[in-house]
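Bench notes, bay 3.
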Amino acid sequence: MASGIVNQSISRVGVTEPFELQVARDQITGHSTVLVSGTFPTLGTSQATVWNQGGIYVYPATAQVMVVASSSANDAAAGTGARTVVIQGLDAIYNEINETVTLNGQTAVNTTNSFLRVFHLAVVTAGSGEAAAGTIYAGTGTVTAGVPAVIYGVYTAGNGSTACIWTVPAGYTAYITNYSAGYGNAITAYGTAFLAIRPFGSVFDTASQVRVSNGSQGWITFNYPIPVEEKSDIEIRANSTTASANVVAEFQIIYIKNDGAL
């Protein structure tokens, strides 16, 4: 192509593009999407949230300043591993926030913001290793060898941030379009994945579930997406017929500003 010539297409202004692509391109006011995924390599017979710490995820009761640290000293401002990490979540009134933190190895670094929810951690910059050298944590309490006493977010080298949880921001309604789960075990077995929703001020209940045989994936797509009101928590939980199963899960959401909030 000759220098200075711009490749023209009517799709540049969204005239012929599908609605879903226009939302992904941030061309539809008040509409956003999110894909949430998680994994747990040692799932047992008790129901657990799909995240790499195991057990049922416990949410902060109030917005907290997070301490951020790594299991490796190389994840630091001048280290060979991760240097900065971004934390995505919600503030005290359920508004979306994110903050970039410069790591200091196993030494805790406090966030400037207080987080009521921690959704996702992502490495922004890294040294010569071009990746995190250790496991990066966000949580509260005393930090020991880079691990906070209470953990709300985890980033692992190779897997990234792997907690299958999300909360609807204030002023929005979310619509769950689909979810899936994959299951594996060394012996013949099966797992069950549960789409769990906790409306604001209420308790978790199962909205849908799928049973997955060993070495396979279950996928549920909703012809009519499930609406979830603002400030509600959503997560995937799972259990297994045997111990030490590996499960991965994800769900996708479009969330739209409520009338009067545009």
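Next record in the batch:
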Amino acid sequence: MPKQTKKQNKRIIAQGAEAILIRQGTILKKDRIKKSYRHKNLDTFLRASRTRHESRIMDKASKLILIPKILKTTEHEIDMDFIEGEKLSNYLDKMPESKAIKVCRTIGQQVSKLHQANIIHGDLTTSNMIWINKTKGSAKLKLKRIKPQDKLHTNSKLYFIDFGLSFHSPRVEDKAVDLHLIKQAIESKHFKKSNIYMKNIITGYKESNPQSSQILKQLEKVESRGRYKGKH
């Protein structure tokens, strides 16, 4: 009799308002949740259109930076590689400062690549970044899967995840707001070293973005609006 193979167990690893993340072996399934308060046809349409939109942006982003590889897209579900690693939010402060500075510069460089392609992530936080430790066997396996044309990314070991709020925009304002989001996240989660981290994110961003001065000027305006609101 042929050997029976065990089915890989499904395990919910996260659930938000819009989607549920299910791990099945080396696959991560992102399933958009039904909304009972919406008309059935509208709900089906919205879930499908948002899933297609996210999948297309991920496909475009995958040519620029490291993100999970899409394996399959259906009406309301995206199957992708599960990236073995640490959420950067849990790992950044544990690194030696010199290493953390390099990682922050990589963050800036990768955000810059997205912005030059007019991709706005929309939810830039260190919780939406995965850091791979090369010493782990699973991490080595993931690095081996990278296509030859993507070898320039392998030194970073930094994956961006969750493009559920991403969109296309050439607007300087949208790019500045994207940077404002990561600054807020750094100040909230990594407040002890937020100045050092953000300084190096901006350094990395400026290194490869010819439009950076214009975007950073707009970032100052975005921040000033926030300070003004805080006084009232």
